[in-house]
Amino acid sequence: MRYRVASALVVVVLALAVAPLTAQASPRGQTLDERIEYIAHEVVGRSATGMTVAVVDGSQTEILQAFGHADEKQERRLSVDSRMPVASVSKVVTALTALTLHQQGALDLDAPIEQVSHVAMRDERAPADRAPLSGRHLLTHHAGLAESIVLPPPAGSEDLQRPLSDWLQRHPPVLEYPAVGMHYSPLVAYAVLGAAIENASGTSFDNAARRTVLGPVGASSATFRDDHDPAGAAIVTPKENGFQAAPWPDAAEAPAASLRWSARDAAALLSALMTKKGSLPEQVVEQARTVSVRPHHGGGGHTQVFFENTRRGVKVLEHAGANGLAWLTLIPEADVGVFVAVNSHDEAATEATEAVVEAVIDWTVETERAHPAPEHPWPAIIPPWLPQSRPAIPTGAFQERLFQDRGPEKALRSLLSQVVVTADGDNLLMNGRQLSPAGEGRWCDLAGCVAGRVTKAGLTVFERGDRGMLEQTLTPAAIRDDQRAVVAALAAWAVAVSAVAIGALLRLLRLLRGHRSAPLLAPKFAVAWAAASSITLASVFAIPLWPLLLNASSFTPPAATWALTGLTTLSAVLAIGWAITAVRRHHAVSRRYLMTAATCAVLTIPANIYLLDWGFIPHL
What we know:
- With about 625 residues, the chain is of the alpha+beta class.
- About 45% of the residues lie in helices and about 15% in strands.
- It has an eight-stranded antiparallel beta barrel.
- The chain is globular and about 90 Å long.
């Protein structure tokens, strides 16, 4: 009897212990409000101070809720009317503004974009791939624009008041990659679209967006202006005993990332996108909800506003901001839309926003509004305004092209963003995956598909579909930038620097003990070179990562990059000085030491070349 009672108590205790986990993993039976409240409870006050949610069912607002506080000191409550910074969700409004102006006849999205934006671009593509680009290419990230993660100088008040075309003339966009495939351009493409919108509307971008989209749909408080918003939510980051402010770096690319709106504004826009004969032109709503481009690899495609994706087996159209700080998602089958945002880009907070989206999807499935389907490769959709290409077998080293091919970004990309593809009979091997043929120019496994295409200039590009909204079309990596070559050069440099450091330490210890050291080859030059090159290498990685890692609200790339160029030059000069002095003194040292020093010198040559390549940045 005692055994049975004890067993029953254990069962009850375990049931109570796992109840929250069970509710989160299998929330069937809870209302949608309760599921969202549970998720908000898990994140608000821990990884973010506030969360807002809007769920629209058809043209009706199903849920409009705010949780927590708007600031890091938790002194102001967050409300459904508090404006939230939503980062790249801004692009949705920018795209809708461009499409609406096109529908009104004010902006021609099929004309060359340089003509309608008055922005001259530098074209570094192969001659055969230099086809004119239109607004459609920009809206679907198929323009081949190089995007820099070394931010431009902070935008002063005078810059924010000027037309976007003025800003872009001082920071010219670079066309670097063929328009075949997707080359995600999070800032530059939408800045160019913003310039075209300003030119077509005859007013500032913020006014154009308000008049064309935000005002008509009823999002009356939404704005792209960077003015301080004392009543809005502030971006925060968690710290040991609370939160601290973590504002965005100032920038002039308002069309890409500067939207601030409330949950009520988001609900108004979602309602307009759910209604064909509403405040937005019917053709604009159709283009926002119709996939216009889908790559050959069979993954999600793009409307001219949203990315196509599958969640819980249900097709969705969505756009994220700042890796999940905000989500705007449509579930077309259920005619449901959801907006969710937190005021922190902490990983736990951004995971919570996705959890809200998936809770809404689960709700649509349980109410039989949506029906999960097995995932399978989708057929390609290539519109007539995209250049045609032919299938190819993509083997070799391929490089993700999110960043520019210069400076510190080149170093990061070479080390972190390469894919090596080899052939195994008819199959392809990629990062431990074996993909089987699934059609001409396409290979698949359970994780997804890839495809190979040849551009007009004869360049083989590699499309893959396992990166969600940030998936890129990869292009061949130059031999000098191959990850294996870069790692080998850095390893050789580390050996040489270690040898110099150990030698200097041993020499110092001998001097401290009163022993006389044997003659050496320019030890001061060697130590100076090791220190300078180490600082240079650290700076190569610190410069592009500085605003991302430290949440810097201001950043001055020209000063930093010029400093990097100076360090690179100093490192090279010291290396040359070390070599010249060593040659002059070679007769005064032992042959064994001479061979060791010569080996170290040879090992440093590739690293010095890479440091020169990474340190000199042709343009900012």
